[in-house]
Amino acid sequence: MRGYGLGERLRWLDVSPCKICAWRKRRGASNRHGCNLPHANWLLPWERQAIIDFYLEHEDEGYRRRAYMMVDQDIACVPPSTVYKVLKKAGVLRRKGGKKSRKGSGFDQPDAPHQHWHIDITYVHIAGRHTYLTTVIDGYSRYIVASVLREHMTNADVDLCIQQAHERFPNAHPRIISDNGKQFMSRDFKELLGIHGFSHVRTSPFYPQSNGKIERWHKSVKGECISSKYFGTLEQAAEVIQGYIDYYNMERLHSAIGYVTPYDMLWDRKEQIVAEREAKMEAARRNRLGQVAG
């Protein structure tokens, strides 16, 4: 090849001068290939199928709640964003249409249990007639403190619910938040709060969103429990509703408090549970990377 310039030689070899420069720059470096390298976020086939199967088996739950349920039950340790991508790619993700929230800023949010107790009454259709469900919910943990189902909506029934709440947490002295219903403006109600050392504040008239935490509870208990069942008697309804309250407090992951149960939030276990989930997901990522790389 003597007597020929570099340019002519490169033309014969069909190699561009730019490629020669690139080869010179990486002289001494290890060879690399252009394929995608496995990383810890890749899912294994069984994980994808487990996510889809669990989602289809729990149709009443949103994908975020289901993601944390799968972590807690050691089914698939992946974050909600990954669950969303898997479900969307599989074509099984169902979206619920929602309306824009009209909530105001409301009260300063509590930073510990038993600072705010919300109380309200809602209609419940039982055995062909209207009955009344009175509930006290803790504003910090969303824990149902007390609930009373009665045929009539009287001052005594509201007082009974407050009394039950006090008996379960006798050392609590919360602010009671209610609407402007006549039961919450009665002399007996004010005297009972005074006896137990509770303060009282009422929401703005004609603005139920300011008591939105308990309004959300009403939506959950009606949609997830009452509307799907038939009750022959008030006693039967009370028993079923109490069963749902136990599930709501102890098992159901609540989206507004970081997908832990109200019970765990009440007893300050949220940070521990979040740390355990992160540890599980990190272990799953390491295991996934090892299997894909192998």
UniProtKB/TrEMBL annotation:
One of its GO terms (biological process) is DNA integration. One of its GO terms (molecular function) is nucleic acid binding. PROSITE patterns: INTEGRASE. InterPro entries: Integrase_cat-core (IPR001584), RNaseH-like_sf (IPR012337), RNaseH_sf (IPR036397), Transpos_IS3 (IPR048020), Transposase_IS3/IS150/IS904 (IPR050900). Residues 109-270 form the Integrase catalytic domain. NCBIfam families: transpos_IS3. This is Transposase InsO family protein. It comes from Oligosphaera ethanolica.
